[in-house]
Amino acid sequence: MQVLVCVFFLGISGGSLLGQTFSGKVVDEGKEPIAFANAVLLSLPDSTFITGVATDEVGKFVLEAKNQASIYLLKITALGYTPFSQSFDKGSGDKLEEIVLKTAVVEVEEVSVVATRPKIRMERGVYIADIENSLVAIGNTVETLLNQLPGGGMGESQWHRGQR
Known about the structure:
Layout (H helix, E strand, L loop, with lengths): L1 H17 L1 E8 L10 E7 L3 E7 L5 E6 L5 E7 L6 E6 L4 E7 L19 E4 L2 E4 L12 H7 L16
Parallel strand pairs: 1-7
Antiparallel strand pairs: 1-4, 2-3, 2-5, 5-6, 8-9
């Protein structure tokens, strides 16, 4: 009987030695869950990383702090939202309320979209090679360039692609 009581008390006190669990749900201002937000638990005062997870599809997360710290810092970040952080004393974590992330608005003055055309493309069954700004065009004649194209060789009596 004494052994059973001793094991029971060791189990209760051992649970606190194993660490602490922090769980919660991350939502936006409209109470919609934010999936795949980063939840990170740090140890204060030096911000040592303890553990981190991503929220699931319904915005829930569970962090297990295996090493004990006197003060924890929970940081939640998600793309497009203002980061959230809150500190906790030892033993005060467990089930957290809903964590509401506010939308982060970023204004930009201008956006530039830059694209390049492929050097060789096919239009209406014909290959078209754009060599105007290519390194191959520098210092070469048209005949030399045509000889480098697939099927575009020129002989003495040939014109483009074997036609006379």
